[in-house]
Amino acid sequence: MDFVAPDIAAIDARIRALESCIGTTRPVGKDEFLHVGVDLGTAYIVVVVLNAAKEPVACALEFAQVVRDGLVVDYIGATCIVRRLAGQLEERLGRRLTHAAIAVPPGTGVKDSATHRHVVEGAGLEVTAILDEPTAANAVLGLDNGVIVDIGGGTTGLSVLEEGRVAYVADEATGGTHLTLVLAGNYGLPFEEAEELKKDPARQDEILSVVRPVLQKMGTIVRRHVEGRNVRSVHLVGGTCCLRGMEDVIATETGLPVYKPANPLLVTPLGIALNCREGGHGY
User: Fold this and answer.
1) Which letter, b or e, does each residue of 59-96 get, where b requires 16 or more Cβ atoms within 10 Å of its Cβ?
2) Could you tell me the CATH superfamily of domain 8-137+267-274?
């Protein structure tokens, strides 16, 4: 089968439309059905609202360390953040948010999936759909074949897609937190200051050179897991992938073309919201 490159321009347009809704809310009808997605990430919790046409109308996010390796480690803290973000969006939209879709890492057990659901329902939202994170991301990327590499705060996770379905998953403990720890050690900074430094757009080239060995390890993880599989392309999502130029390091280590959408942090949250359905439990 010939390799078909994804329509990056179209994907980026959808992500940019959502990104613009972080600071500006678009109007919605009084009775219009709203698609809501809640992403409980290792570094950020993100709530996305789409209108009936599945167009972005509002988005809010907050840095948080209440989830570790896909597991909720601070139930009360996570619930309070989701409730706060949903409340902010309700005020901006002039509408109550009543239901949401959520996502969990692939291979998450029933008990841990239930914890994610309890967090969101504890914040006052009925969960009407639970899906795995690569399926959520692929609702935006639209891949038939390839590997989605989700680099979050704690891990590098990958999901190999064949004919649009997840055929293989893996997860290893190297993520954005490791980049922050390297920066903290290199510059003699507290963790929180190193985390802010990592996001400084003016110092991205400098940061890339410092953390390159960790990125190379991430690339090695991907290469090892896709070896022997018919993988023709790598697609990066997750907040850690926002680091400028890191895609080139991954491409060098894997020997594969690497695609990174605009603001990869928002890919999975958008995909979660796209899968929100009206009424009834979808899990």
Assistant:
1) bbbeebbbbeebbbeeeebbbbbbbebbbebbebbebe
2) ATPase, nucleotide binding domain (3.30.420.40)
